[in-house]
Amino acid sequence: MRRHASTRTAFGALRWSSIALAVWCAAGSALAAPATLAPGVLTVCASAAFPPVLFKSGQALVGSDVAFLRGFAKSHKLELAFREFAFDGLWLRPGRDECDLAAAGLSHLASRESPGVVWSRPYHTVLRTLLIRKDRGATLRTIADFSGRSIGFVTNSTADLDVRARAPAGAVLRDYAEAAPGIAEVRAGTLDAFADGNVTSEDFAARFPELAVIDAHSFDPAEVLAFALRARSGLREALDGYIEANRDAYGK
Questions:
Q1: Which residues have C-beta within 8 Å of that of residue 62, sequence separation ≥ 6?
Q2: Alpha helices, DSSP H, located in 33-90
Q3: Whole-model pTM?
Q4: Secondary structure element (H or E) that encloses residue 47, with its range
Q5: CB 137: neighbour CB atoms within 10 A?
Q6: CA nearest to 183, candidates 173, 196, 172, 171
Q7: pLDDT digits (tens, 9 = 90+) for 17-44
Q8: Residue 72 in contact with residue 193, Cβ under 8 Å?
Q9: What phi, psi does 155 have (nearest 5°)?
Q10: How far is residue 169's CA from residue 34's CA, in Å, rounded to a whole number?
Q11: Assigned fold of 128-217
Q12: What is the distance, to the nearest Å, from the Cα of residue 95 to the centroid of all Cα atoms in its chain?
């Protein structure tokens, strides 16, 4: 009887081990071959609105998001293909089967939840900022100083929401399709400030010494960047794992 029970126990353990191995293999296969719109291709809806996160160099899309996604695609033997769109509403496009993933330094906001779209885990944390000319720094220290002054931002971006919520009465608000034209106006002195995340603001301030970053502040909870995914792509688990392993290298 003891020998029979032992044999039965061993057989049961072996059977459950086999089942567990089969489940693990199935999961591994699913991660290796996600249901992308085009087999073997990760199609990305992208906006070049926010250097250095994502922008154009000649005809090519480049930036921190692009480099990060190239690493993910390579790790899963996927080719990378881009479709370029304006920023406004970019996060809706994966749910319309226009691409597998949307990228442009997107903040994951409750207002951006939409049918057919799931969001990756966060890959970067940002602050909200204003970019001004240094020679205006004596009078422009925070957004409270902008009554009668002009502030630009990308349409329907987090900066748009933040400025509209915090700008004083009398501030003149201007929206842009991309950051670069607005920041060019700040440099020229025809726009008093451009609102953006600290990644973009600090990049422009480093390249143009006449610019300065002010009014840096965090949301509560902190604002995070994530990728909007086509829910049926099956990409989220694989991408979340890649983010977990590589987020500290983002932008470096």
A1: 54, 55, 56
A2: 64-75
A3: 0.84
A4: none
A5: 11
A6: 196
A7: 343 334 334 444 444 468 999 999 999 9
A8: no
A9: -55, 130
A10: 50
A11: D-Maltodextrin-Binding Protein; domain 2 (3.40.190)
A12: 16
